[in-house]
């Protein structure tokens, strides 16, 4: 901790669900945080963080933070509460959990969580309670699955070229991520390559966003058509002698079969599918084919379609065709999530996990809570829940079903939260939660290579308590606190995990701040072979048998229309295509100053974002008689939502964009954008297709 005048500088890490996981220097004065800065001496953060985290004091010291436990005193959702002691609130939760277990079995209790914090202790300790009690498991599907699955099908391991190598590239392809808005450090290293090496930046997305404005070549395509673009690019590479045949022969499974398959995947074919011109496709292909040090930074956005895993795999095939992996500053990257080697078995209570306990699909919470037999996987109805680190009434697909389920009179659920979210408003018990500067934890940077400590640096306000406290207190009341792993502080858990993983201790991390665990060049670039048993990159993936970090458990099985997945990279029309009744395709892209449903309460973010709007192409608007700022209604079989039109020519006709996950109450009818999104699973290993929604639109 450094001191200057009456301000001291504390060190931490950003806890939010973002690949950047920035190293932070935080101003502290009189027990409160002030401005937050990126750590200049961290080689990935490099002193740069997003504006919303720089203003984090707006969240920590917000007047609307929850400070005391509350118990519902009126009808569900009515907003009538009475304050309670922690003892009384926890007693009530335990009583209702035990009641549900006695009447319907332990699997009628479903602890539900996700990534409101990415800290390994505060996020994941809920699993220890889940396993110790035999409660229903959760199959995480709302974020990573299509991307990770598509990557694994090709590379066989979830790692890639050191993301700091972007600064050493001659061409950086930013595909499917609005990095300026969602992971600003990507731009730090890409812009450095431009300044120092005159590198070209290519951006591929479904609309002209802030990252596009930094591009030398900007490709705006239709949602769900990335696979077609990738195939046409590879067609040109083979056609024009830009494929690295020596690399292909050594490192890939069937280059001859791929080349034959791509004969018909011409730029003309892809142009009709993507909306790009033939010239745009060929220019891109020649640029990456002639630039050996091309770095493909592949994001989550373009995988949030029902053909998302196929699209990821197709895009990943390009650097295997060019041989870019062989060069520093070349290759590809999506996530380093497999490199960290942290042993979370004690935190998560692996020793108590029963393989016979069912898993419930996180994204299908609406179907689960409304009694859908298929979603329940033959088990009992869900009668009780503890919800931590997520806001399903706002962020989950099929929002009407989710709210219908949460409104059930026979469902008891408690929410541990920082603010009164859409989900908390419907709960039986609401518990006040700490923020990251108020508890100890450790973080992994999926978008880079650092493990970073986030120690407690200020006291929590009111009666806010950390996630671990809730888990420990419930374990005591539920009779499992004697089991190994319970009764430990966050620091004790971190010491155990770091020691088991050979990475030191809490105190060593307090001194060093982070550990850089980046694999060597040959490992990161797969020079010693890709992650499959034969060491080959797979152009012909085994869509249903390839291991993946979040493959569905056997009780759930392979997902979606997996029979339709292609033999080679391709465009597959598994998307929710526009039709005469629903002529528009909706993507719900991230807003710059929100992060999922976080920061929607902070003054700076609310001022920047304004109001929920729908980006609509001016020509489409003219055809519909819609003017700038006019109220419009969009809908499909799942429901309808009202927004204000913003005329914008930065996407293809027939595409509409609604940025950000605004709170439901910010919308005219109290229903948010996820009323429209579907929860049907993405093939082959699951996921949620948030950017793959057909809608109709009418002026109001």
UniProtKB/TrEMBL annotation:
Keywords linked to the UniProt accession: Iron, Iron-sulfur, Metal-binding
4Fe-4S Mo/W bis-MGD-type domain location: 7-64
One of the Pfam families matching this protein, by short name: Molybdopterin
A GO term for molecular function: molybdopterin cofactor binding
CDD domains in UniProt: MopB_3 (cd02766), MopB_CT_3 (cd02786)
PANTHER family documented for this protein: OXIDOREDUCTASE YYAE-RELATED, TRIMETHYLAMINE-N-OXIDE REDUCTASE
Family assignment from sequence similarity: Belongs to the prokaryotic molybdopterin-containing oxidoreductase family.
Protein name (Swiss-Prot/TrEMBL): Molybdopterin oxidoreductase
Gene source species: Nitratireductor basaltis
């Amino acid at each position: 901790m450094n001191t200057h005048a009456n301000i001291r500088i504390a060190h931490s890490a950003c806890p939010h669900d973002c690949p950047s996981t920035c190293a932070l220097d935080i101003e502290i004065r009189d027990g409160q945080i002030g401005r937050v800065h990126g750590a200049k001496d961290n080689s990935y953060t490099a002193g740069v963080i997003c504006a919303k985290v720089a203003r984090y004091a707006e969240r920590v010291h917000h007047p609307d933070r929850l400070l005391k436990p509350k118990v519902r005193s009126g009808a569900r959702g009515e907003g009538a509460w009475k304050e309670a002691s922690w003892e009384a609130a926890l007693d009530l939760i335990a009583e209702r959990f035990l009641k549900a277990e006695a009447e319907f079995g332990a699997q009628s209790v479903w602890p539900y969580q996700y990534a409101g914090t990415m800290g390994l202790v505060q996020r994941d300790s809920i699993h220890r309670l889940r396993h110790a009690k035999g409660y229903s498991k959760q199959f995480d599907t709302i974020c990573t699955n299509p991307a990770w699955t598509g990557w694994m099908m090709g590379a066989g391991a979830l790692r890639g070229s050191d993301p700091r190598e972007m600064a050493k590239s001659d061409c950086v392809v930013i595909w499917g991520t609005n990095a300026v808005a969602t992971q600003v450090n990507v731009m730090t290293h890409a812009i450095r390559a431009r300044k120092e090496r005159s590198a070209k930046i290519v951006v591929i997305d479904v609309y002209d966003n802030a990252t596009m404005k930094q591009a030398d070549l900007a490709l705006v395509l239709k949602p769900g058509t990335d696979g077609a673009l990738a195939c046409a690019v590879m067609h040109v590479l083979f056609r024009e002698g830009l494929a690295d045949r020596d690399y292909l022969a050594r490192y890939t499974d069937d280059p001859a079969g791929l080349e034959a398959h791509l004969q018909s995947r011409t730029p003309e074919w892809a142009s009709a599918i993507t909306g790009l011109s033939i010239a745009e496709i060929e220019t891109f292909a020649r640029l990456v084919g002639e630039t050996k040090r091309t770095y493909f930074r592949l994001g989550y956005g373009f995988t949030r379609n029902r053909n998302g895993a196929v699209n990821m795999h197709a895009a990943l095939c390009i650097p295997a065709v060019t041989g870019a992996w062989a060069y520093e500053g070349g290759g590809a990257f999506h996530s380093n999530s497999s490199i960290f080697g942290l042993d979370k078995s004690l935190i998560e209570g692996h020793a108590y996990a029963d393989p016979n306990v069912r898993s419930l699909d996180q994204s299908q919470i609406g179907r689960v809570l409304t009694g859908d037999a298929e979603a329940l996987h033959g088990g009992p109805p869900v009668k009780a829940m503890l919800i931590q680190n997520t806001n399903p009434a706002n962020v989950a697909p099929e929002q009407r079903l989710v709210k219908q389920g949460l409104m059930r009179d026979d469902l008891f659920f408690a929410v541990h939260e920082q603010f009164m979210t859409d989900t908390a408003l419907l709960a039986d018990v609401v518990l006040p939660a700490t923020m990251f500067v108020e508890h100890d934890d450790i973080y992994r940077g999926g978008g880079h290579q650092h493990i970073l400590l986030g120690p407690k640096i200020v006291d929590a306000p009111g009666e806010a308590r950390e996630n671990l406290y809730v888990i420990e207190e419930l374990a005591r009341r539920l009779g499992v606190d004697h089991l190994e792993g319970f009764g430990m502080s966050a620091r004790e858990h971190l010491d155990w995990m770091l020691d088991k993983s050979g990475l030191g201790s809490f105190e060593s991390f307090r001194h060093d701040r982070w550990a850089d665990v980046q694999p060597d060049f040959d490992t990161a670039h797969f020079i010693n072979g890709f992650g499959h048993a034969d060491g080959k990159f797979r152009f012909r993936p085994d869509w249903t048998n390839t291991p993946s970090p979040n493959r569905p458990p056997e009780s759930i099985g392979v997902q979606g229309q997996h029979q339709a997945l292609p033999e080679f990279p391709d465009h597959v029309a598994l998307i929710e295509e526009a039709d005469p009744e629903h002529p528009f395709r909706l993507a719900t892209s991230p807003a710059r100053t929100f992060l999922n449903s976080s920061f929607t309460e902070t003054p700076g973010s609310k001022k920047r974002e304004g109001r929920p709007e729908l980006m609509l192409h001016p020509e489409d608007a003219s055809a519909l008689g819609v003017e700038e700022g006019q109220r419009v209604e969009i809908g499909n079989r799942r429901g309808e939502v009202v927004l204000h039109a913003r005329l914008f020519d930065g996407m293809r006709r027939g595409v509409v964009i609604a940025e950000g996950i605004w709170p439901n109450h910010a919308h005219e009818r109290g229903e948010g954008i996820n009323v429209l999104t579907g929860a049907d699973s993405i093939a082959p290993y699951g996921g949620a297709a948030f950017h793959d929604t057909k809608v109709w639109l009418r002026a109001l």
